[in-house]
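PROTEIN FOLDING TASK:
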Amino acid sequence: MMKRVASLLVSSLLYSGCAMADGSIVVWMTDSRPGYKKWLETEAAAFKAKHPGVKVSVVQMSPNDAYLKIPAAAAAGGLPDVIWTTYGLAPWLDGMKGGKLADVSDLIDRLGKNRFDEDALKQWSYRGAVACVPVARTPTYLMHRADLFKKAGLAAPESWEDVIRAAQKLNDPANGKYGIAMPGKTDFSPRFAYGMILYSMGGSTFDTQGNPIFESPASIDALKVYKQLYAYSPPGSLNFGFSEIQRALAQGRVAMTISNPSSMATFQRTNRDEGSTLALALPGKVNRTIQNQRGWCIADGKNSQDAKAFVEHLFSTSSFAAYLDAASISSFPVYHDQAAYDQFQASNETVKRFPGATDFIRRHTVGTMPGIDGVGLTPKSGDLISSGQIESAINRMLANDMSEQETAAAMQKETLRLLN
């Protein structure tokens, strides 16, 4: 563990904004999909052509690595100049020593405040201002093989009982086929899968007064559904995270998974059989799912003006269209540039193959982040996300170390500890 921390401190010293020479900015992309880095490096070169005195260095990592590297970077002397992150982490970044965020109200005004979704600006609000520049919301859905459902005589699932029955019927371990891929790894995927089930059943992780309610009947019911579905997941699913569940779906090993719409892009690239089709569903009582908003946070430091100029460049029509293509329907924009969106719709291969997907996403994006849904943006919201208390408890439940009730109690206890 000490070697791991030391390694993170060294890498943070190398990559944090304060370690770079004048005229250079460092951008952390906290999403490990390769399309994002390619897009950012292309835009960094285009920006440098217009601003020869400014070099942009792009560093890519997974969200889980970012949870460790961000505090290490702050401890080493400061945050990188620009960070792509979820809205719940913004106050966490701003509150840590060496982590103060720049005021981006001037940048939002230049981009056009009326071009951002009002809901997005509200969700990113912290201490009377918008903490970072909102870009997109990433919802979570049930992804299912519509062709396999049709072949088996199954209708599109409308309830979690339907999903469980479909997983059972489509489960064929003897032939290496399974009903559904459920994540068990301690990355963010179990949080989102549990949250999507919970929200669509009408539940929440906090009440309206900001008190955690992980032991509510709805939460325990959601955990029961999770565990029932896990019985039809492939062997080794305790080590399945975001990449593994998407890969299992794309390779035809499973008929369903719970993930964001980037699963469709992975499927489109991997499974070229046009007869294999995917559809999105939101089973449950209410039209509510996970909505993980992502955006650009800018560190308050000597490079903040150059950093703002680079982020502003990323909102130009050509760059924003390229971002949408890199995201490939995993995220739905909260910034409105119709020309960029039209370019994306006309050129993206995933949209062409699944033409109804973007309309479904547009109609089903209501929700928030499980674990902070009743807290909002506070310095504690970063701890509630980065601590992994939901993911760890679900991992133990799936390993048969805890019952659903014990799992709910563990999440409740750890959340209360983090809040106090």
